[in-house]
Amino acid sequence: MTMKKVMTIAGSDTSGGAGIQADLKTFQELGVYGMTALTTIVTMDPKNNWSHNVFPISTDILETQIETIISTGIDAMKTGMLGSEEVIKIAAKTIKENSLDHVVIDPVMVCKGEDEPIHPELNEALRDLLVPLATVVTPNLFEAWQLAKTGPIKTVEDMKEAAVKIHELGAKYVLIKGGSKLQHEKAVDLLYDGQEFTLYESERVETTYTHGAGCTYSSAITAEIAKGKPVKEAVQTAKNFITAAINHGFKLNEYVGPTMPGAYRKYGAGRLESE
């Protein structure tokens, strides 16, 4: 049997819950072969409240990683933590020069608080250089607000407004992840294809063990697209996958709890509604 091959350009989470570690676990669970181009290595300090330290990989090394992967032939790719405008440009160049057409952009942004990005110039580069190349772009509420240049997103109607604006940037599909801050009784995600909206709903899970959820979700979409699934079906499977992963998240230590990518295979999807 020939396995589908996928590439992730993202950071390495030393604690194992997010980044390329989450990507590879998800790829494995969904039956595709994952390859990684590391942009950064992130470590955590157990002596200082798990504070994060970020060690960027040189762009020369990043480019040789990508060259290695591209030479094998890939069926889909995703991006995660990119870290600099130069790295964003490398990702965009890779997509364009190799005519890659199954591309999931997870526009990872870091905010200072509720509504202020740490590196607004990187958000602009993501918006201008990568979003237009996306088959699917997968922002959370904060990221969607930054890309759409609207106000804070609190309702499904706000999500729809932002999705239209992001789609106008050039992405074929926009998936806005609702998360816990959305004013809705369910865990709601919204997909927009330029013509219609599709809501994916599941029961809310009251947990703090959600580390890596965004990476896992976008990785699951990437895996399913690589296998030839239509985007709406790929998102449905990914929603099932992340719902199970969050339902079975666990405590890693006193600071963090990751989701469990193996839960979908082991326990099933759980309750899910879509319309």
From TrEMBL:
Protein name in the entry: pyridoxal kinase
Write down the EC number.
Answer: 2.7.1.35
What the entry lists under InterPro entries is as follows: HMP/HMP-P_kinase_dom, PM/HMP-P_kinase-1, Ribokinase-like
Q: Which SUPFAM superfamilies does its entry note?
A: Ribokinase-like
Q: Which domain of life is it from?
A: Bacteria
Q: To which species is this protein native?
A: Cytobacillus oceanisediminis
Enumerate the spans annotated as Pyridoxamine kinase/Phosphomethylpyrimidine kinase domain.
13-259
Question: GO molecular function, one example?
Answer: kinase activity
Lineage, highest ranks first = Bacteria, Bacillati, Bacillota, Bacilli, Bacillales
Q: Which reaction is this enzyme known to catalyze?
A: pyridoxal + ATP = pyridoxal 5'-phosphate + ADP + H(+)
